[in-house]
Amino acid sequence: MDIIEQNMLEVHNPFNNELLEILPGDNRVSVLEAISRAEQYDYHLTGWQRYEILNQLCFLIEAHRKELKKIISLESGKTLSDADLEVTRAYQAFLLSAEEAKRINGELVPLDAVVGIEKGLAMVTREPVGIVAAITPFNFPLNLVAHKVGPALAANNPVIVKPSESTPITAIRLMELLHEAGLPEEMMQVVVGEPEWIVDIFCTDDRIRKISFTGSTDTGKKICHKAGLKAVSMELGGNDPMVILSDADIDAAIPIAVDGAYGNNGQRCTSIKRFVIEECIADRFIDRFVDVTRKLRVGDQLDPTVNIGPLINETAAKTVRNRIEATVKDGADLLCGGRRQGALLWPTVLDNVRNNSPLVARETFGPVAPFIRVKDFDQAIDVVNDTSYGLQSGVFTNDLCKAKAAASRIRAGGVMINRAPGFRAEHLPFGGIKNSGVGREGIKYAVDAMTYTKTIVM
Predict the structure, then answer these.
(1) Catalytic residue among 203, 269, 363, 426
(2) Is residue 203 flagged as an active site residue?
(3) Number of folded domains in the chain?
(4) Is the domain of 155 the same as that of 119?
C-alpha cells in the first residue's frame, strides 16, 4: 500500500485568515493504526460506566464553555452567540447519550406464537455494531460531532472522528475532554487531513462497521456506493422552505424568519433556503423583513455586537455571491445586501425568485433570503415539493386545517408548524428523504442505529 507522507494542516480564522494552529495531518499508516487501536477495545464498559463517563464529560463541557465557544467561533466563523448555543446543544446531546447508555434494552418473545413450538423462549438483545467512523462538516464542529460520538459511545462502540479540515481543533479538544472524563483512549480518536483518501479507507476497511456522515449529497452518494455492506447513516443537504400563508401571524413570524435565514451565517443544512409566500401578504411581509435585515451587523465574529460573521472561507462567499448574481439575471429583484468582502457576505433579500433559479435549485450555504410568490396554499405545497431534497420545512399559519394538510402533504423528514425549518431538539429524530439522506439522528434513534439485534433461543 502506498504511504501518503504526513502533511501539516493549517487552520485559519475565516474572518482575517489569521493562522490559528498547525496540526500534523494523518497519513494512511496512522489512519490504519487508529483503526487497529479501536479494534483493541474489548467492550468491557458497562452501561453504568458509560453513563458516568458521558455525564462527567457534561461537567467538563460546562467548565470549559468559554474556551470551547471561542474555539468554535475562531475556526468556523460563527458569532459568539451562535457558538454559545452550539455548546449548550452539545451538552444536551451528551447528557441524553449518558441516559441512553442505561436504556439499551432487548425483549422476550414467546415461541408459542407459531405452530409447532409450544415450549421455549426467544431473547432479542441489542449489541454494539462495532467501530464507527464519524465524518463531520465545518458548520457545527462540536454539536454534529456530539450527535455521532455520544450515541456511538452510549451503545458501547469505539468511534473514529474525521472532522472537517477547516474546523478540526474543536473535535480534538472534545476528544481530550472525553479522555479526561475517563474514556479509554481507544474508544475515541480523531484523524485529520484531506477527506477523500481517509473516507476511502473508512469505506473499504472491513473493520469499520458503520459510517455516520453529515455533508453534501454528492459525497454521501459516493460513500454509499463504496461502503458496500457497512451500515450507513447519511445526513445530507437540504433545500428547506418556510411557507408563509395569508393567515400567518406576521409579528411572530418575522423574527423567526430572520433567524432561520441568517443564523449561523446561513450555513446550516436546515437554514431557510426558500421563502414561499402567498401573494396577498408578500409586500407587507417582505418590507418588514428587509427593514430588519438592513439593521444586522456584519463583521468580526468575536465582536459581540456582530450578528453575521464570515462564511467558512472566501471561496464559499464567492460561490454564494455568484449564485445571487445569476438569480438576478434570471429575473429576481435584489432588495438589499449582496455585497461581499473576503469571506464576509452581507445578508441578502431577493424577491420574485423562481423555484428553479440558481440560488434555490441547489443547496446554498449563506445568509440569503429568496422569496418565491405563490397564489394560494395548493401552489405553495407544489412549490415546496418541487425539489430533489426533503430535509425539513416550516409552515406559518393560524388555520389548523391547513397546518394538518401541510404536515401530511409536504414530502420531508420534518414539518415545523409556526417554526422555522431549522428547529431541532437533540432527543427528536432528525433526517431527510430523497437526496437529503437516509437514517435518523437524534440520540435515541442514533443509538438504535449503532446497534444490531441478536436473537437467542432457549
Answers:
(1) 269
(2) no
(3) 2
(4) yes
Asked if 284 and 342 sit in the same domain, the reply is yes
Q: What is the CATH number of the domain that holds 207?
A: 3.40.605.10
Is residue 426 situated within a structural domain?
A: no
Q: Under DSSP, is residue 381 helix (H, G, I), strand (E, B) or coil?
A: helix
Same domain, 59 and 111: yes
194 is an active site residue? no
Show pLDDT as tens, one digit a residue, over the chain (458 residues). 344 455 889 999 999 999 999 999 999 999 999 999 999 999 999 999 999 999 999 999 999 999 999 999 999 999 999 999 999 999 999 999 999 999 999 999 988 888 888 888 899 999 999 999 999 999 999 999 999 999 999 999 999 999 999 999 999 999 999 999 999 999 999 999 989 999 999 999 999 999 999 999 999 999 999 999 999 999 999 999 999 999 999 999 999 999 999 999 999 999 999 999 999 999 999 999 999 999 999 999 999 999 999 999 999 999 999 999 999 999 999 999 999 999 999 999 999 999 999 999 989 999 999 999 999 999 999 999 999 999 999 999 999 999 999 999 999 999 999 999 999 999 999 999 999 999 999 999 999 999 999 999 98
Whose cell is 429575473? That residue is 331
Q: Could you give the CA distance from residue 412 to residue 214 in angstroms, rounded to a whole number?
A: 17
The continuous run of DSSP H or E covering 47 comes out as helix 47-63
Q: Can you say whether residue 22 is alpha, beta or left, with left for phi > 0 and alpha for psi between -120 and 50 degrees?
A: beta
Residue 299 domain boundaries: 241-417
Residues 172 and 284 in one domain: no
Options 75, 100, 235, 363, the catalytic residue: 235
Say whether both 84 and 197 belong to one domain. Answer: yes
